[in-house]
Amino acid sequence: MPTRRIAQDEAADEQLGRDPLALVIGMLLDQQFPMERAFAAPRLLADRLGVETLSAAELAGADPEQLAKVFQGPPALHRYPGSMAGRTQALCRLLVERYDGRAEALWADAPDGATLLRRLGELPGFGAQKSKIFLALLGKQYGVTPAGWREAAGVYGEEGSHRSVADITGPESLAEVRSFKQAQKQAAREEKAATQAPA
Closest Cα to residue 154, out of 173, 168, 134? Predict the structure, then answer.
């Protein structure tokens, strides 16, 4: 596997490469928050908990108030640390209940892309778009390529695209993805303005 540069931080990226739960939590936190900070947050979380590898069972069973304090920092692990601590705990509880606490069990035996997409969509905090982006990230950077994964990931699975975190391999591609997202937001704003303009 190639060296990953999602978080643009060596220790954080190293953790994303060896700790499947860190990767899932990073994706969960990638919402209304800078992408690289979201994916660097699992490393900070592990450091604050004094562990090398995050444990779904331990996070699921943690005292919610204590976990919220860990998320608050400083620095905070997310723009909304309290609600994201709760969502992380809900995610870990689901992993414990259905996958024996192993995040990688989500994709290890997935027979095809559609099945994996459905499993991801069942995770707390994973809507349709986030699930497709994460599926593309697994396929493009983590060697998780069940049959039909690109089709299931939609436009995010396209080769050579610069749409999401799935396409970030360094500072240059991060800038390209950011530029694409800004263009998308601008287009959406213009479309909204056009529909609201008086006839």
Answer: 134
pLDDT in tens, 37-51: 999 999 999 999 999
Whole-model pTM: value is 0.90
Domains belonging to the chain, first-starting first, are 10-161 (1.10.340.30)
Asked whether 60 and 90 are in contact (CB, 8 A), the reply is: no
What are the tens digits of pLDDT across the range 161-179? 888 888 888 788 878 888 8
CA dihedral 36, 42, 44, 45 (to 10 degrees): 150
Judged by DSSP in three states, 45 sits in: helix
CA–CA separation, 32 vs 54, rounded Å? 23
CA 52-70-95 angle, 5° bins: 60
